[in-house]
Amino acid sequence: MPPASEEPPIVHVVDDDESLRQGLASLFRSVGLDVRTYSSTEDFLQTDRLEAPGCIVLDIRLPGISGLDFQEQLAELGIRLPVILMTGHGDIPMSVRAMKAGAVDFLPKPFRDQDMLDAVMVAIKRNRAEREREGQSLATVDRYATLSPREREVMALVTAGKLNKQVAAELGVSEVTVKIHRGAAMRKMGARSLADLVRMADALKETKAR
């Protein structure tokens, strides 16, 4: 399977209006995008392509759960695709709620084809960037797992701003030993500088906090 960054993106259209679904499908295919259409959120959740990059074009008024409520549930379901909301009955509070929940755009119907295409392209770009960051974070975690316990201790203290001699005093080892472990940690982590190592340490903390 190719990396997510190389997979063709999929636009998922969720709307109970068949004519609109088909119209959007034709629009997206006209610019070379892969499209999946669904008449309800239940149909959408049955698809097996949610791991591919892309986005969701979601109507606010749907049978059963509303598009706004479903948008807020996506994270709980582990679905991290960006959302573009569309509605024929929008208002300011509704749009504010959508944007606060992370929507890429909120398009009132009828919308211009170009506005929808622009929103979808922004959403796909955002999704690819997020997947790239996640991939880098996972690679950092994998590299960190190769460090010895002492190398991890040295990395933690060095990236906290301590000098080699301070690290040596805290760990009860020689400064030469600290330099050896520090060099090994940087080599295994693929860090070209102390600044790189600090960024990696910060990324590891963010990953653990999730």
Brief overview:
Helices cover 56% and strands 12% of the residues. The protein is built from nine helices and five strands, in the order βαβαβαβαβααααα. Strands 2-1-3-4-5 form a five-stranded parallel beta sheet, sandwiched between helices.
Task: Describe it.
The protein folds into two domains: 10-133, 3-Layer(aba) Sandwich (Rossmann fold); 146-209, Winged helix-like DNA-binding domain superfamily/Winged helix DNA-binding domain (Arc Repressor Mutant, subunit A, Orthogonal Bundle), CATH 1.10.10. It has 210 residues and is an alpha/beta fold. Helix 6 crosses helix 9 (194-209). The mean pLDDT is 89. Helix 3 links the parallel strand 3 (54-59) and strand 4. The chain has a five-stranded parallel beta sheet, sandwiched between helices. The chain contains nine helices and five strands; from the N terminus they run βαβαβαβαβααααα.
Notable features of this structure?
single chain, 210 residues, alpha/beta, Rossmann fold, Arc Repressor Mutant, subunit A, 2 domains, elongated
Q: Number of DSSP strands?
A: 5
Could you tell me the CATH topology label of the largest domain.
Rossmann fold
Oligomerization = single chain
Count of discrete alpha- or pi-helical segments spanning 4 or more residues: 9
Q: How many angstroms separate the termini?
A: 26 Å
The CATH architecture name of the largest domain reads 3-Layer(aba) Sandwich
Mean pLDDT: 89
Report the CATH C-level class of the largest domain.
Alpha Beta
Largest sheet: 5 strands, parallel
Strand portion: 5-15%
Rg over C-alpha atoms, rounded to the nearest angstrom: 23 Å
Low-confidence parts: none
Coarse morphology? elongated
